[in-house]
Amino acid sequence: MSKEINHFCVLCGKGYHACDSCNDTKAFASWKSLTDTVEHFKIFIILRDFHNGILSKDEAKDKLSGFDLTERSSFKNSAKKVLEEILK
User: CA–CA separation, 14 vs 50, rounded Å?
Assistant: First the structure.
């Protein structure tokens, strides 16, 4: 199995390797097809749900409080923009 970079995290943009053959047999998208870590996937879902109006600012802020966001400066600009809107 090759370990070459074949995905880029939608949250931070980091390149990583994920096996695509599993995605061919599942009826749902694996977190590995969108992000490089489970934590980034969970943060991405919170940002997406806030952006789409599913979560209020307070709900999103509360859910994000359980995550270490010290590396948020490395996030993609689109993610940083939503995150800043939630945290201000």
Answer: 23
Band (pLDDT 50/70/90 cuts) for residue 24 is: low
Q: What is the pLDDT of residues 40-49, one digit of tens each?
A: 999 999 999 9
- Answer whether 33's CB lies under 8 Å from 23's CB: yes
What is the token pair recorded at 25? Answer: 């047999």
Residues facing residue 8 across a β-bridge: 15
Range 74-77 contact pairs with CB under 8 angstroms and sequence separation of 24 or more? 74/12, 75/11, 75/12, 76/10, 76/11, 76/12, 76/13
User: What's the one-letter identity of residue 47?
Assistant: L
CA 55/CA 63 separation, integer angstroms: 10
C-alpha span between 60 and 37 (Å, rounded): 19
